[in-house]
Design a protein that fits this description.
Catalytic domain of cyclic nucleotide phosphodiesterase 4b2b; mainly alpha; 60% helix; single chain; globular
Length: 296
């Protein structure tokens, strides 16, 4: 796999997704990937009727593209590994659409002029599922397909219990687990993940102010410094167990070569966590980092 694809370039990610799709399904619909990427671009750039361009600074279009790139690579790796059950072409297509839509809940309607879309952090998963349902209905998808995409999107909720999601079959559940895996790995492996953590804290703080909730994860941090300090434990004690247990170890299909080769995503995350530990090593280091990268 080539890992130098820039997630700042939607066209480059779309080309990589198209290549993976056609490698999985040589007789597939060559117009599907360009079509759904076009929809996503319209949604995040203010060209979807009634909505503004995305203004959340962490959960922006690049964040979605990071997860999408990881997702198509994971699905391709899974297919090449001969994993069972084999995902159908349609299920893979729905999975791609689901990850492209999974953070549309951060989008604001044109009449919504207060704050940024980050204020919807606590409800963005349900808002994303609702948004995806509208878009899919407008484009002729069946009720069952809409429900599948909505169930997959629900896999990205930080506190969602998979056993509460009404999956319609094992293929759908596996695709949802792949989506949840790609959402976590794609963002945490980003080259600028550590530098963007203060921006993520800013989103949490805005959501906490907007909702007034004191007992949610957005209220769990005393400041950007606290988020920096807690993120290594988040990786070790939450993300890694979740990837392995709740998401069924889907991340192993990114091992290249499969099954025992290195996993570039995990390696990049481990490097980011090590950098973060260095930032956290002293108050002086953390203060200098926050002076440089604190959200304005």
């Amino acid at each position: 796999m080539r890992y130098e694809i820039s997630t700042k370039d939607p066209a480059a990610v779309a080309r990589e997704a198209q290549a993976a799709y056609l490698a999985m399904f040589p007789q597939g619909d060559p117009s599907f990937v360009p079509r759904v990427f076009h929809w996503a671009g319209d949604c995040f750039n203010g060209r979807y009727d009634g909505y503004q361009p995305v203004d959340a600074r962490y959960h922006d279009f690049e964040h979605t593209l990071q997860g999408t790139l990881c997702m198509v690579r994971l699905l391709l790796g899974r297919r090449r590994a001969g994993a069972q059950p084999v995902l159908s072409q349609r299920m893979a297509e729905l999975g791609l659409l689901a990850i492209l839509m999974h953070d549309t809940g951060y989008l604001k309607r044109k009449s919504d002029t207060g704050g940024t879309g980050a204020k919807y952090t606590l409800t963005h998963v349900s808002r994303s599922a609702e948004f995806a349902g509208h878009l899919m209905s407008e484009n002729g998808f069946s009720d069952k397909e809409i429900a599948a995409v909505q169930n997959m999107i629900c896999c990205t909720g930080v506190d969602t219990m998979l056993q509460t999601i009404p999956f319609q079959g094992e293929e759908e559940k596996i695709t949802g687990m792949a989506l949840g895996t790609a959402d976590l790995l794609g963002q945490m492996a980003a080259d600028d993940y550590v530098e963007k953590l203060p921006v993520l804290y800013g989103e949490f703080a805005e959501a906490a102010r907007f909702t007034g909730q004191k007992d949610s994860f957005v209220s769990a941090f005393d400041g950007a410094r606290d988020l920096l300090q807690k993120t290594p434990d988040f990786w070790e004690n939450f993300v890694k167990p979740k990837l392995e247990r709740e998401f069924g170890g889907q991340s192993r299909f990114l091992n290249d070569p499969y099954p025992d080769g290195p996993n570039a995503y995990v390696e990049k995350i481990e490097a980011n966590i090590q950098r973060l530990r260095e930032v956290n090593a002293s108050e002086e280091n953390t203060t200098a980092f926050l002076k440089k990268y604190r959200e304005p």
